[in-house]
Amino acid sequence: MPSTAPGTGSDGVAVVPGRPVPDQADPADDALKARHRAMWASGSYATVASEVIPVLGPVLVEACRPGPGDRVLDVAAGTGNAALPAARTGADVTATDLTPELLDTGREAAEQAGLRLTWQAADAERLPFDDASFDVVMSCVGVMFAPHHRRAADELVRVCRPGGTVGLLSWTPGGFVGQMLATIRPFAPAPPPGAQPPPLWGDEAHVRDLLGDRVVDVDARRQSLEVTAFGSPEEFRELFKACYGPTVAVYRSLADDPSRTAGLDAALDDLARRHGLDDGGTSMAWEYLLLTARRA
Fold first, then answer.
1. Are 109 and 84 in contact (CB under 8 A)?
2. Torsions phi, psi for 38 (to 5 deg)
3. What does pTM read for this prediction?
4. Contacts by 7-15, CB closer than 8 A, 24 or more apart
5. Domains and CATH numbers, the chain
6. Mean of the pLDDT values across residues 6-30?
7. Which pairs with CB-CB distance under 8 Å and at least 24 residues apart come from 185-190?
8. Where is the Methyltransferase type domain (predicted)?
9. What CA–CA distance (Å, rounded) separates 4 from 142?
10. Is residue 79 a contact partner of residue 105, using CB atoms and an 8 Å limit?
């Protein structure tokens, strides 16, 4: 990967010297990505990452097994849940995300921990890196939110060197977060044409189809994260209502509709009760798919 600092193309996408400037995205796609950036910058994703799902990043890093000197790319890295533990292995880590505000938070955490990483704003569907630039390309509940799955998968594979590792950790459609996203969907504005549901990345068959014969030695496992951060359905709902970008965005769209707001409150409370926060229960199981593969 070139060592010189990246510049910026005419569309605002960071460009690494040695790789041509990406083709200009169409206006509709630019507008969609702008909405995604704003959505993830709203609320406080850092709170969710650090208080609810902090162990997921280390789980993915352990599965990808980077080592000293390995070139690691964390796509849709957010605040660095996987990037920071990867850096602790001695790997040379680049963390990218569509939302610079999340990277700023991750950069501060890395500085406090004495870790050195490269932080770069980038679209997962248009990564500004040369082909075969990285030994490990990974994403922890991140790239699944890119709206065009095929484009994102093509980029993950393209920037991974032959023999390198692609590692993905994604919420499953039938697990708690997949069901939460399904619960809020009827209350949200209609998605743009061509955008695919994020939890499909938690469907093994879907991911295998996306990656195709460009990868070998696929290892896919459904696992569960035990979540004990909430003492009641209302506590869960209020934290996600305030902190989690997709939920924040839906509630903001309902600001002038108290009836539908109350309906979404009730739907999320019911979902949490059905997944463990009922009759004094405080433990929830959030299912995810952990998939690793070797670039052919």
1. yes
2. -65, -40
3. 0.91
4. 9/128, 13/122, 13/123, 13/126, 13/128, 14/120, 14/121, 14/122, 14/128, 15/128
5. 23-226+286-295 (3.40.50.150)
6. 48
7. 187/250, 187/253, 187/254, 187/260, 187/263, 187/264, 187/267, 188/249, 188/250, 188/253, 189/253
8. 73-166
9. 27
10. yes
Contact predicate 73/138, CB 8 Å: yes
**Amino acid of residue 208:** R
Contact (CB, 8 A) for 81 and 103:
no
- The predicted-structure confidence for 222-234, as pLDDT tens digits, reads as follows 999 999 999 999 9
Return all residues near 177 (Cβ < 8 A) that are at least 6 apart: 141, 171, 199, 286, 288
pLDDT at 169 over 80: yes
Q: List all residues 6 or more positions away from 23 whose beta carbon is below 8 Å from its beta carbon.
A: none
Cα distances from 62 to residues 43, 186, 204, 214, in angstroms, run: 29, 37, 20, 23
Residues 198 and 172 sit within 8 Å (Cβ to Cβ): no
Q: In which residue are the tokens 């009836």 written?
A: 259
H helix runs in 42-175, sequence order: 45-51, 56-64, 83-87, 100-113, 149-158
pLDDT digits (tens, 9 = 90+) for 78-135: 999 999 999 999 999 999 999 999 999 999 999 999 999 999 999 999 999 999 999 9
Tell the burial category of 264 from Cβ atoms under 10 Å away from its Cβ (0-12, 13-18, 19+).
buried
Rg (C-alpha) for the chain, rounded Å, is 19
Contact 162, 296 (CB under 8 A): yes
